[in-house]
Queue: 2 jobs
Job 1
Amino acid sequence: MRNSIRMAAQACAAVSSLSMILALATPAAAQSAVGDSAWPKVGTETQVDFEYDHLSPKHDRDGGALNIQAGQQTLIELDNRWSVSNLLTLQPMQSLQPGDHRVLADHGLFAEELFARWNNQRVNIKVGKFAQNFARAWYLTPGLYGQDIVGDYALGETLGAEAQVMLGDETFGLHQVSASAFMADRTILSESLFYNRGRLTRDAGGSANTSGLKSFVVSYDATNVPVGHAALDYQISLASLGHGVDGDKDERRGSAGFNFNIPLNGSVEETLRGRFSELRLLAEAVRIDSADGISGQRRDYLIGAVEYQRGQWVFDLTASDRRSMDPFAPAVHDKLQSVAIGYSLPSDMVVAVGLAHEVIGGQDGILVGLQVSQTLTTCDRCLIRGRHY
Amino acid sequence: MATSTLAGPFDTLFGSETSLPASAAVEPLHNPVEYRSENGRLDVTLEAKVVRTKVGKFEISAATYNGVYGGPVLRVKPGDTLHVTLINHLKQVTNIHFHGLSVSPKGHGDNAMKAIAPGESWDYEIDIPADHRAGLYWYHTHAHGFAERQLMAGLSGMLVIEGFQKAEPELAPLKERLFALKDFQADSHGDLYRVLKAYHRDIRTINGQLMPRIDIQPDETQLWRLSNQTANAFFRLSLEGHTFRIVGRDAAPVPHPETVNEVMFGPSQRLDVLVDGGAPGSYKLVSERTLTGPQGDEFPAQNMALMVVAPPASGEAKAAGLPASSQMVANAGSDMSKATMTGNRLVVFSSDDATGLFFINHRIFDHQRVEVKVPLGSVEEWTIRNSADELHIFHIHQAPFQVMSVNGVAQPFNGLVDTVTVPIHGEVKMRIAFTDPKIVGRFMFHCHILEHEDKGMMAQIEVFDPKVGPMPEGMQHDHNMGGSMAGAAMPMHDAAAAADTNVGR
Ligand SMILES: [Cu+2]
């Protein structure tokens, strides 16, 4: 959940006024006096980002956009095992193009996730609309622009069922296997309010846009594997996506990646003094064959990121790479390097600035952005806590 | 309503402090109400009741024992019987845990599994062994699912087993001051918030007082006994122009006292520290800003008290100072570093953002399940691993332990403790002796950040007599007494609890 909100956050941009944020803060703060201990427990969390992005392609017109990106998460716990989760997202429905000058334009509100969940801490089953557990860099990569290229391979907007099972005990970390069957969402949930992106139809084609559950993901996730006094996470996943009416072959995907959290200054005393520091390394490779269901189309992705966090400050660097090979067109090599700095305030507000250099379709561009993000929550711990940009 | 809910964010948006100035320190620090044992017995009735309580300029919906926010102090001696009649006037279940005591967890003993239903009462009859370690303990509500808010509302107090100063003769003449340190977050109506946030303005108190004055003479040394009775908060205390000499941790005297500029201690931990008066003047006792990690909590700084150093008024007795060559006498329990271990165990603290649950070994608390079964006579080495981006603080009932290493760094023996904070992505190794026949039975170990405990980070252990074997699964040692948390009489999340979940109302 945090992921999709985070991911969405990258897509847009922001400057904000304090009064606007505090006005938004009112409902959540007032609700927090409501009880949450007897079943059902209802928790909500809202994250609002204001972001301003400026795009300067070298040989084209400048573009700029002021956008809001908001996520509203509701978690209804019926008991210790059953829960229902919903994520409403408000975001601009068009990406920033050279020559654009937009202020709060094209914003649509839609249900990004809506699912029921059953878990007994070893087995976890989800049914409904949710993002598939395929690869992780599309939501874990830090920074304002770090997810711009790898966001491509997120498998969101899908309906299906997923089972995840924990293997063994936690001596060598948490090890889980998951499997899911799904299809593209063509229900009313694929539409959006305000700016309506329109309902997805079968005629629109695309991978997983099938008549039934003809797409599958299988993943192996290892979390908090102790390596010295650092924590390693890794994931290997495979996917097969049924082709749509415009395709001729099922899409095949594979991914491998890791995320390594290395506390540098992590004693209890230094943590309490606010001087905890940590280095995070992230890398992921994804290969897609028969991309979009077209035989011979291939996409290769590679991303690396380094994040350094100290107290309330976060610094990060990312580099990502996409190679597109089509049978009847020259290969295209897109690149993006980004840097960002963020600071968290005690009010759960994060202020961040980012800079990126991109080469997309052979065209160079520079992106600069400022983001102000505020999180409001009525759950002790659901969803997004801590840093979230 | 709107203005009040916004007052917090505005005040603290940029980390501005909400504490009182030195000029506000007028009232002297009071000692809380005390109940002392007589002729080997302390019989006391504690009524858990919702009361409106004045704390400085704030009036909050507190829930206290006998109306005392910060808690009445219970004073007993080794060998005494402590008899507490708890009357539950709340609209939720509650109970009492006697933190740190090595006594029986069964029946009417220190039985934290037992839930006392609204309107009911329960008698705790604790036989304190004649050889029990003297020191500063505390008692508090342990009602799983409600512990955080009930404790924050006030349901806790200090429990002193007399004799700490006798074991350390240098301490005997010193003035003893007790500090029950608590915190709350309330809205403008005085109702406590459910979700604790830095921007809700965390108010910290000493014995229910805001910014009291602490008097000391220039040549005087005082023994300050600090008890962290917050639900979730860590303290990082500093005293302007002064140092602290740590002579006790949890209940145990430390064999190697340490002089520090700031003392840090987490929820449920206790510290005995020596403070020297020094040059006349006024010095602020400050609770410095603390953070518990990237996924944890932040607590802003606050002025806690003002220490006023002044010579004695004429006619007043000269207070005692600490002899320069003081040698602390160790009475800290036995060093287990050479002991033979009968077993090893791993305890993993983790949490799940998607469900909001907190785990021990990837399970939430289940009163029917016993995570660990240990035959009496075992001495075990446990590894506590923190697989989270925030601090967790391990506590086990009934059995104090020795910290052997933190992140692989060996720790010298410095007394037995009942709590230890585990670094982020780190490991603490500790040794526990399950050799005292009095602790046979089922009890708990958990994270003492009560938000985490309420959300599942707790598990049961059973110490069993190897001649008899462990109890059958699902059975409680008090199952025939009615009202067990496991029993049908009062399950944790029943209709009565659902009817009113706000302890402050
Ligand atoms: Cu914890």
Note: The pocket of copper (II) ion is lined by residues B 392, 447, 449, 452, 457 (CB under 6 Å).
Job 2
Amino acid sequence: MLNVNGLTVKYGSVVALEGANLRIDAGEVVALLGPNGAGKSTALKAIAGLVVPASGEIVFDGRNIVGYKTHELVRMGLVLVPERRHIFPSMTVLENLELGAYIRSDKRSIRRDIERVFALFPVLREKKNHRAGTLSGGQQQMLAIGRALMSKPKMLLLDEPSVGLSPNYVEAVFEKIREINRQGTTILFVEQNVRIALEYSDRAYVFGIGRIEFEGPSKELLKDKRVRNIFTGEDFTPDQK
Amino acid sequence: MLNQLLLNGIIAGSIYALIAIGFTIIYRTVRFFHLAHGAVYTAGAYAAYTLIKLLKVSPILAVPIAVLLSALLGVVIDLLVYRPLRKEGASDLVLLLASFGAFIFVQNLIQLIYGAQILTLRSGEVKEGHHIFGAVITDVQILILLVSLFLMLVLWLFIHKTKIGKAMRAVADDPLGASVVGIDPERIIFVAFLVGSALAGIAGMLISLETNIEPTMGFTAILKGMIAAIIGGIGSIPGSVFGGFFLGLAENLGIWKIPSGWKDAISFVILIIFLLFRPSGIWSALYDRGGK
Ligand SMILES: Nc1ncnc2c1ncn2[C@@H]1O[C@H](COP(=O)(O)OP(=O)(O)OP(=O)(O)O)[C@@H](O)[C@H]1O
Ligand SMILES: [Mg+2]
């Protein structure tokens, strides 16, 4: 579904990501992990059209999408839930969800999908007439995910959905992400918590600074020594080959 | 006397509010001060003058045409001046300077075509006003007030009830959030310039029913509009309405005690007081939405 080949992204003269290759098949849940500043968010931003790569190819659904704008990609079914959520704080929960369906016009099925989001995140129904800015961090994260679902994405990109959430909430949010995947949405997410990331994904890519070091099925990576080094809090130093 | 000043303040305030609302709608989507908004206001007055006085078009037809021309002028300024700069990733300061340049350009163009002299759109003898509560209100003033209030209501419905209006609020709230739901920011900017400039054009036309028109009239207008927007907490539409009326009343009540030559100075004193003590505006204090 998504193929990234030789992706290099620079901010000015700083190379944030170099020669990254990713492949995500339809129906998968794939995690990106690695240390701070590795370029994980940069990879998602490039895929979502928020930064323009210096070189490389990003193929989504058979089309090279480099140069496409974020809002155009949403129409193609590729939707980002950005870091820090970026919900609309002065608007109500319901209005946020309605705006999630901005690219759609089928009023009746939009209503139905709002009900679906409420079924997935019951707390949003309780708060539907509250301004989104008044929600707790966890509720805002659910709203951000719910809003993204409203555009009926084929593939959802999530950048650190667990940031700022209490531990109970983290698991809950990832359970929901699993459920969304079971309903047919392909998922690529970035997550700092290695255990969580590997538990809730089929495959994972492990980043070093500015590049991808290795990848593999999450079950195997859980036992992988190189990954365990991060687990135990040791410095993650990529192999120098 | 007091009632008359109150009334005058409300009339002036409704014009300030219209300018401030248009300015704010645009500010919320582009995030810089579109000073050329003042020139669009001037252009609205001259468009009406040209159509009604020079081309003898009936006002019923002339007014919508002039509104449309003002709206288009705003859009053209955006397309020719701001958009190329936006593409280059220009800073807010560069855009502010460009907006000042565009303001001067349009103002000089108007002066070149019509000359610097004062023109008037008013016709016929000045009618005796109506007496209410010891104050006198003219038909024109009633018209200004009704049109302004009507436009505010329509605008409120537009941004709260229509899809494009909600998208405009979304961009104002969080531009990145707006783009990840599929909103094209350029489309919203286009609509903001269209709607905001139409309001400026209407304000220019309304004022030309009351006073004379001249090429430099946009300068005071944009200053007052900006001050009203700042009083209201920059970026807030209800705040701009509030700021407009507040400024109009403060100026007119001020001259009750202070010589009327100081009227413009009053607004600057208010601006400075706000910038020093309450840069987020009063509206955000009265209203818990943080200026939104
Ligand atoms: N807008 C920017 N301008 C300049 N440099 C940037 C920008 N965004 C990121 N960088 C730099 O690019 C590198 C990669 O950043 P990125 O945010 O992609 O890392 P990350 O893996 O997501 O890290 P984190 O775990 O902290 O979120 C870092 O060195 C960062 O400082
Ligand atoms: Mg990141």
Note: The first strand of chain B starts at residue 130 and ends at 132.
